[in-house]
Specification:
Layout (H helix, E strand, L loop, with lengths): L3 E5 L4 H9 L4 E5 L10 H9 L6 E6 L4 H10 L4 E4 L5 H5 L5 E7 L5 H6 L6 E8 L25 E3 L8 H8 L3 E4 L4 E3 L2 E2 L1 H10 L2
Helix pairs in contact: 1-2
The structure holds the ligand O=C(O)c1ccccc1N[C@@H]1O[C@H](COP(=O)(O)O)[C@@H](O)[C@H]1O.
Ligand LGQLAAA5 binds next to strand 2, strand 6 and strand 8.
Amino acid sequence: MRTRIKICGLRDAATARQVALLGADAIGLVFYPPSPRHVSVALAAEIVAALPVFVASVGLFVNASVENVSAVLEKVPLDLLQFHGDEDLAFCSQFGRPFIKALRVKPGINLLEYAASFVSPLCRGILLDAWVDGVPGGTGESFDWQALPNEWPLPLILSGGLHPENVAAAIACVQPWAVDVSSGVEQCKGIKDLVLVESFVRAVI
Ligand SMILES: O=C(O)c1ccccc1N[C@@H]1O[C@H](COP(=O)(O)O)[C@@H](O)[C@H]1O
């Protein structure tokens, strides 16, 4: 079975639909105002409404307030939440929605212990991203895949600096359940390139 694909940081309905038609299993919507990929609640609702059936919508938050996440959930029918900051299990679980938790790979972090602390009914996976000081994600930076454990207590989503030329090698090395990409399929920050999206999807094995 092919590795699942999430393309993150969509900012218009037509491109999101195209990305889905090219083979993405999920698209990500960034609710983090400092990001160049940030979307408003109204735009996110429009994008989700344009997706073909069976393509999942994922809302990405970074250390957002409860009120902020709840306000998005009231208006946007997201399938999954992605918490990309320092949120703990209690924070992530309180919305009663399935979620994935990002972990930025940094020397000294016990990756398996961290992942094990999120094993719970609503946590559907651990997403690994590169650690870049001062920027929570979407940096286009990768990390050393060779250093990762082979077995994980939750489905693994690999991200961080993936692009059409390295994604097959990353999958062969890590064998994740899914891959997630933003910068590697963009013309410039926040603008997706459908040719790169197509090449990325084709390269995923
Ligand atoms: O995409 C963003 O702007 C973003 C902002 C803040 C936190 C996470 C963000 N994106 C996620 O970052 C990783 C890696 O992205 P990249 O492919 O290296 O650019 C990915 O999981 C995105 O969902």
